[in-house]
């Protein structure tokens, strides 16, 4: 599996939903809590083209968007190929 990184906050329901989907697929991910590490929010925004909201999800360094984007990729059958080595 390709590496997955997800920027989150502890109280974000969309973050929890995105992590549930990834976990259900057996995908491990590196989580960055931008509430606990506020300086990392600027990093997230730069990598995500200015997006401020969480989650922001990256697969193999490529920005795929937020929770809705992740679920859309899954529903259209595009997520699994993106995750494969």
TrEMBL record:
InterPro entries in alphabetical order: Glutaredoxin, Glutaredoxin_subgr, GRX_bact, Thioredoxin-like_sf
A single MF term (Gene Ontology): glutathione disulfide oxidoreductase activity
The keyword Electron transport is annotated on this UniProt entry: yes
Entry annotated with the keyword Transport: yes
Domain of life: Bacteria
GO cellular component: cytoplasm
Record key words, sorted: Cytoplasm, Disulfide bond, Electron transport, Redox-active center, Transport
Gene Ontology biological-process annotations: cell redox homeostasis; cellular response to oxidative stress
Domain Glutaredoxin: 4-64
Function: Has a glutathione-disulfide oxidoreductase activity in the presence of NADPH and glutathione reductase. Reduces low molecular weight disulfides and proteins.
Family in the record: Belongs to the glutaredoxin family.
Protein name: Glutaredoxin
Species for this entry: Ketogulonicigenium vulgare (strain WSH-001)
């Amino acid at each position: 599996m390709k590496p997955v990184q997800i920027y989150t906050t502890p109280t974000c329901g969309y973050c929890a939903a995105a992590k549930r989907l990834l976990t259900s697929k057996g995908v491990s991910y590196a989580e960055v809590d931008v509430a606990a590490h506020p300086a990392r929010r600027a990093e997230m925004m730069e990598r995500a083209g200015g997006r401020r909201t969480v989650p922001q999800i990256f697969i193999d360094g490529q920005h795929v968007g937020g929770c809705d984007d992740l679920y859309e990729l899954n529903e259209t059958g595009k997520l699994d190929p993106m995750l494969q080595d």
